[in-house]
Amino acid sequence: MNIELNISERDKKLLLILLSLLILAGAYFLVYQKNMKQVQEVSAANEELRTRVEELSQMQAQADTKQAEMKEFSREIAEIEAKFPLTVSQADAIVTLDELERAAGMKISSSGFNMNQRFYLSGLADPEAGAGTEQTPAADRLQGFKSTVTISYQTTYEGLKQAIDYINGNQDRMTIGDLSVTYDTSTGNLMGSMTIHMYSILVPDTDKTYEPPALDRIGTGRDNIFGTIE
After folding, report:
1. What is the average per-residue pLDDT within 36-46?
2. In CATH, 90-202 is 3.30.465.10
3. Which residues lie closer than 8 Å to 96 by C-beta, 6 or more apart?
């Protein structure tokens, strides 16, 4: 059975337009979906990059903070280094005792010296426990030393106070470890013994140099600068 469809020219044109619109819409949606997928992928990549940039920015800020902390640490080390002598020799201790006598009107009858005993080595809580086992040589570490000077003295009450002030206010770091005082009824003065701790710090790669003191004036009028004062 043959059915003839009579389609006018106008209807044909409308059908062609509709077909074209359908083809165009299909192509649009295919391209749109593809582009949207690319947009999502780019957005995800941008988010990942943004997160990475934030992480790197935080790391840079932390690096700047650490660098500032290292500069502050170096400054503090330099300040500490400036406050302590590089080393304390027996000659330095003798000069100190001579100045102590002059400043306090004190007579020192005898003296004993135990010089430069290491009490601190950076990286070790107990410097003696790690002796010979440390991987980094001691010369490459900050080291602290204590020299102990023990004296027998005679002075007045005011002289003893001046001696204490001299030791506490000395530009080189020193402290009084032990102090004994007795009253001499025959002279009305004080006599006893005193232990003085003198400290030094050896900093690796330092520009400081040690200069020994001049002992010319110390020996004047004395037969033995290590012995007694009559």
Report:
1. 68
2. no
3. 149, 170, 172, 174, 196, 198
CA dihedral (212, 213, 217, 218) in degrees, to 10, reads -80
pTM for the model stands at 0.62
CA distance 129 to 123: 12
pLDDT tens track for 177-220: 999 999 988 888 999 999 999 999 887 777 778 888 887 766 54
Q: How far apart, in whole angstroms, are the C-alpha atoms of residue 32 and residue 40?
A: 12
**Euclidean distance between CA atoms 141 and 128, whole angstroms:** 14
In whole angstroms, how far apart are CA 75 and each of 22, 70, 72, 111, 158? 78, 8, 5, 38, 40
Asked if residues 110 and 227 have their Cβ atoms less than 8 Å apart, the reply is yes
Helices 157-168 and 90-104: angle between axes, nearest 10 degrees: 140
State whether residue 72 is helix, strand or coil.
helix
Q: How far is 110 from 193, CA to CA, in rounded Å?
A: 9
Q: Name the phi and psi angles at 133, rounded to 5.
A: -115, -15
Supply 133's token pair: 């086992």
Report the alpha-carbon angle 186-191-196, nearest 5: 170
Query: Is the pLDDT assigned to residue 34 strictly greater than 70?
Result: no
Give the number of other Cβ atoms within 10 Å of residue 86's Cβ. Answer: 15
Give, as one character, the DSSP assignment of residue 140: G
Determine how many CB atoms are found less than 10 A away from the CB of residue 136: 12
Q: Helices in 87-193 by DSSP H: which ranges? A: 90-104, 157-168
**3-class DSSP assignment, residue 22:** helix
